[in-house]
What does this fold into?
Amino acid sequence: MLQKFSNNAISTLAASVDIGAQVFTLATGTGDLFPEINGDEEYFYIRLGTDENNEVVKIHNRIGDTLENYDDAPYSAAWDAGTPVALTCSAEVLESFVQVEGGGQVMVGHELCSYCESRRSANIVSGSVEFDFYRANVHYVLLTEDITNVTFTGVPSGTIACTCTLIFKQDPTGGRTIIWPASVAWPGNTAPTLSSQAGNVDIIKLLTINGGANWYCMVAGIGFGAGQVPG
It folds into this structure.
């Protein structure tokens, strides 16, 4: 089930409703302020009344200025035309939200859908490049010169596992190289040889479990042809 939200969804009843009503008509032209419902799994809540006297109703469908409720349980009050109507949220839904603060919290038993990671372009300055985990976990680098100094910043401290994806693309000159720091470990203790052809793309994955003091690194892909990966 997915609760829908929208900004500034406020109206009034265009007509009175009896106890247990399942249809609520809003003031003309205000229905579009409220969320659109697409399918049986979506819904939203409205609050009828004022701060002193109100009732929360679950809405399962909206057609123009008409809101529909399919619950069998009757509601406890009748409401007059002109009663304020506002989009609201239930305590049950609020309690289901996961709040993550700066220090981070653990999520248990939650399913992620349409999950994406932030992507950032990192520039090479005089042979140095910085990968800032506070800003992104996926970093893209256009290799305009050799990299002789790699630093990782913003890595969560402690024993939290943290991963990173680095995407390197050779510039039109090609042949750029990378010198990795001593904190980076490779399978077989051998760093990979990156692509040298102009425009080619290499992808490296990294994992740390001690706040970036040490990194396990592995190749996700070498030698993607020019044009296969966007710049």
